[in-house]
Amino acid sequence: MLLNADMQAAALNVLVWGVAAVCAGRRPVERTARRGRARAVTLLTLLGLGTLLVLGRITTVVLMGRESLLFVIDRLAVALPSLVLPALAALVCTVPRLLAWARRPSLETRTAAFSPTAVVPVQVTAVGAFVGLWTALVTILAPPLLGPALLIHSAVVLLAALAWFWQTRRWLAARSGPRTRRSVPVRALRAVAAVAAVAVAGTGLANLAAASSRLPASMSMAPPGATAGGHHGGGESVTAAVGTTSVTELTGPRDERPDRRFTLVAKEKTIRLASGRTVRAWAFNGQVPGPDLRMRQGELVEVTVRNELRGANVAVHWHGVDVPNAEDGVPGVTQNAVRPGGTHVYRFRPDESGTHWYHSHQQTSVQQMRGLFGALIIDPPKPRPADHDWFLAMHSWDTEDTEDADSVPALGLADRLERRRAAPGSRVRLRLLNSDRLTHEFSLTGTSFRVTALDGNAVHGPTPVSGQKLALGAGARYDVEFVMPDRPVRLTEVQDFVGARDRGLLISADGRGEVTPDIPSRVFDPTTYGTPAPTPFGPESRFSRTQSTVFDNEIGFYDGRFRITWTVNGKAFPDIPHLTVREGDLVRLRFANRSHFDHPMHLHGHHVLVLSRNGRPVTGSPVWLDTVNVRVGEVWEVAFRADNPGIWMDHCHIGDHAVLGMMTHLSYENVTTPYRVGRETGNRTE
Ligand code: C2O
Ligand code: CU
Fold it and tell me: In 3D, which of 57, 38, 25 has the Cα closest to residue 135?
């Protein structure tokens, strides 16, 4: 809301100050006192309105700043000074002259109102207002701000000087008598020429911007500076330069005998949702979601992925499992994508447990949504027993049904109410995954429950929850447990409640019965849930580095097209600098979401510990996550230990956002990769 108000204030400032600048700059030819007064009053009204709007923008910036300084630091450095200072000058210099003209219209007061002192402040305020809108919408600035701020302010000062010079000439000309007006045809011609010139220049600039925004057909994902002989396109045999490690060396155990073997075959398959709708899915082993990969903590796991898709490459990422870098399944960073007919073998030994998942990381936004994902569940050495242990993936499917305008939401393949049986007294564990694009909210009606794990990480001392809904960002997992009561229980996705009325999961002794779903307004807050427990580091630790990032949406050209892009500190992939760390570093990340959408930020290869959310430290159980859903207007502070060398993606798990810019990387010093991404490489991570 605040952001919208701020944008509106910025836009209205441009409008009002723009009109005022045009009015003020028009040569006064008013012959009668009445006309002169009318013009002065109009201008004064515009300036009054403009002043209110400046105050409005100051207010929105102050209110945003009260949420977090991260939200406004760019505005404090650029947008506000370039608006407020000239507006003050207009109040001091322009307004008195206009007042004099309005009170005593005469040649003298009229001339004074056209002097550079009166006109230029209004023009410069219009420029400042434009800068304020541009930097909120098109070119978002982020620290370090000194350079851009100096550049922009100098440009404005230069423009002001030019305006002064120009206005002085016009003023002197006006004083030396009435201008001889040119004939109508000449004026019309000049106007047409001017419009044409602006149009040509505008199209030229737009074309240039579009062309220069094209993503390279092939580019290295090695952090700048780290060089492996990778410039000839990645082959696995490329060895790193002296003193550097190639990701190809950072593999899981290669020689030992695996404890568990899985094979995943990716192939097209038409599947049927519960309602009968059909989906042209991409499936692992003919199943959607793919087969559950279930293993025990500490086991050596080997997964062979075979690609039988027609014309699409594939690579599989083990989301939430901190595998060695070469096993991470990111095409163009940790491997080359598997071409049709090819195979790739992944090996890792998870030393953690919990509900995780796997999905294709090649063209993730498409392949994962088409069905190339599944559960990866790691049992701890002593698993807590449950009578029913159900994995439920919230997904939405693009069906072949032409009546479905949007994709159809479903729990797994159940796009209508699914019924399952559980005897009263039995222990039920729901492993909820959000494999969809949006944040989804769920309610569980008919019983209280405990949230026993977040992103597969056990919650310490979970207490019974009721009257709260669970909000899962894209990629997130919540384990929910309860003892089955002697009446039915219902899980419902409540976000889109109208549509969800006839969807969800109903559990009862005989699979029958009805429950009216609750729609709690309170959202379960993991940062105040459970009881504290020791953590290896915390808010008071000394951090080797801290990185603050602000998420925005910007408008402009991206990969040759005019789009809304999703930016990290004003930059989109591949321009976002890697976060570079050294092994052993303790790293703190701050995420501030100033955009109009949630951003579930997923860091590969590491778990992050939440330090605070919206400035409030975690008071309950430690919250360990691999995907931090930074909702609109939120600020999160998280930390992690850099203990898994490699080059790791850190990206928004909403595929459509990743495609349009929201992909960054965490790189360890001296780690490099021979692989490349881009149209020509066959490797497409987004
Ligand atoms: Cu679940 Cu980079 O992805
Ligand atoms: Cu996002």
Answer: 57
